[in-house]
Amino acid sequence: MAPKCKTGCGKNAILKRPKTGDALCRECFFWAFETEVHNTVTAARLFRRGQYVAVAASGGKDSTVLAHVMKELNQRYDYGLRLVLLSIDEGITGYRDDSLETVKRNRDQYGIPLTVLSYEDLYGWTMDDIVKQVGLRNNCTFCGVFRRQALDRGAAQLGVDQIVTGHNADDIAETVVMNVLRGDIARLQRCTAISTGTEGSIPRSKPFKYTYEKEIVMYAYFKKLDYFSTECIYSPNAYRGYARAYLKDLEAIRATSIIDIIHSGESLAVRDAARLPTQGTCSRCQYISSQPVCKACVLLQGLNQGRPRLGIGKSSKVQERARETEGESGDRSEVDSATVTVGAG
Ligand SMILES: Nc1ncnc2c1ncn2[C@@H]1O[C@H](COP(=O)(O)OP(=O)(O)OP(=O)(O)O)[C@@H](O)[C@H]1O
Prior knowledge:
- The chain is built from 13 helices and 11 strands.
- It has 345 residues and is an alpha/beta fold.
- It folds into 2 domains: 30-274, HUPs (Rossmann fold, 3-Layer(aba) Sandwich), CATH 3.40.50; 277-335, no CATH class.
- A 7-stranded mixed beta sheet has the order 7-8-6-3-4-5-11, sandwiched between helices. The protein has a two-stranded antiparallel ribbon with strand order 1-2.
- A hairpin with a 6-residue loop joins strand 9 and strand 10.
- The longest helix has 20 residues, at 139-158.
- Bound molecules: adenosine-5'-triphosphate.
- Residues 311-345 are annotated as: Disordered.
């Protein structure tokens, strides 16, 4: 006989929650999942009434569930937010073009307007072109740096108050582990923050900070949400892949590993004497940067000069090389901005 739902609602349980081990029926799982996200949002005071919030939407499971839950909670608890979907088209044929079709369907299904910005318009390069130049080894560096900036530029053009992303508990625990292994104190200090944003930049929040990836997949499955599930064809970042595999092994032995690692990251204190980068603006594109020239401008300079490795490596060396070679042939090292807006419905 099927077990009964742990809540005592009388229905049969259809799943076992990875986070708590509770046997729940579909409706009680939805309620528990959404309520936990709502509790995270309210405990951290993520939003203020009247705010205009961009949901960074890739079409993947995390951001699709995020868009759905944001709309749901905004209505149920009357957050008073105006929502918009913001997507970055990295120019990856057979991957992002297909996932963007999913986001367009989500726009219609949820009635949330969508804005798409492309690397091609912003930087003059698609990821397909970048991979042709740099190969598959360092391409994730270009993609990550450009996407981060592209989201900020899109958010600034839209005039939103903040961006929310679908980063989940597993992503954050992986980042903690990666930063420990790399000895990256500056990132280690900020990677568990639910909301980031220094002066002059648009805040970014992670409402799924404490939400397990497995539960996001379950939620999407049982809600029958329309999402794109293929991995990037240019291979996920190898280093993160190792951190992920390590965490999965830990989780198999100790179910609470993910949350435990996040709590450890939150409790870490950085010595007063530790040297941390200070935030300024890029001398070329005026975007926020802890270096004289931001990483996106250096990477772009390298691409435009046919020296794709120029921006790879230690920051001090990268800055030196960028200065020495600035203005050499083919250099169009500043970032342009352009938007393609696709209205709702
Ligand atoms: N091309 C993009 N356009 C807009 N937002 C993006 C894009 N790629 C990633 N993001 C945002 O960054 C978050 C983390 O991205 P990541 O690449 O780790 O993908 P993921 O964990 O597979 O998430 P998802 O399932 O939403 O794709 C996403 O949930 C989304 O909010």
